[in-house]
Amino acid sequence: MTPQLYIMVKEPHPGRVKTRLGADIGHTRAAWWFRHQTRRLIRRLSADPRWHTVLAVAPDHEGLNSRIWPENVPRQAQGRGDLGDRMARILRNAPKGPVLIIGADIPDIRPQHIAQAFKALGNHDAVIGPAPDGGYWLIGLKNTCAVPRQLFDNVRWSSEFARADTLNTLGGLSCALLQNLRDVDTAADL
To answer: CA nearest 145: which of 186, 77, 95?
Structure first.
């Protein structure tokens, strides 16, 4: 059972990615930042042999055929629905064993953060990497056969309640919290 790391990525079209950042610095500049940030992150994390990296791409058809992302990293379509629907689908369809999901807009993620998260799953059912804004940069489960049915139900995404709401949907699963890392949503975050 090789640990699985899923990186959620969107095609970096102006006005379709990092829209709050785009409102601050312009949509073309925000898409350029996201494209380059994501490529660095994928290169840094996919080279590590301790886990198998998969890109969860959106929009589905365009992402699966994209020339932007490295060809050597496998891809899987995110599918329809809100963020919770898409993450739950990843977890339910992942191979048995430990699985992590991260976003691509967190510049400080390093291989040691991912290794620490997989290690935490040795003693916990779930793991979350909190962000200072009340959200999170990572979520993972020790066993994808035990994905709670209610996982991500009624989570208030893009709010200060996203992490607390998600923790409530874990039911009785034990959860480790990792180091706070900041995602980039606005120019101030840069």
So the answer is: 95
Contact 117, 138 (CB under 8 A): yes
Whether the predicted model's global pTM rises above the 0.85 cut:
yes
Residues 127-181: pLDDT tens digits? 999 999 999 999 999 998 889 999 999 999 989 999 999 999 998 899 999 999 9
Any idea which residue has 């039911």 for tokens?
Answer: 171
Bridge partners, 176 (sequence order): 127
Q: What are the chain's domains?
A: 4-189 (3.90.550.10)
DSSP state of 95: P
Please state, in angstroms and as integers, the Cα–Cα distance from residue 117 to each residue in 34, 50, 84, following that order: 24, 12, 20
Amino acid symbol at 155: V
Q: Which residues pair with 103 in a beta bridge?
A: 8
Q: What is the pLDDT, as a whole number, of residue 1?
A: 82
Please tell me the predicted confidence (pLDDT) of residue 101: 98
* Strands of the 99-103 sheet, one edge to the other: 75-77, 52-58, 4-10, 99-103, 136-141, 126-130, 175-177
Kindly state the tokens that stand for 16: 């379709």
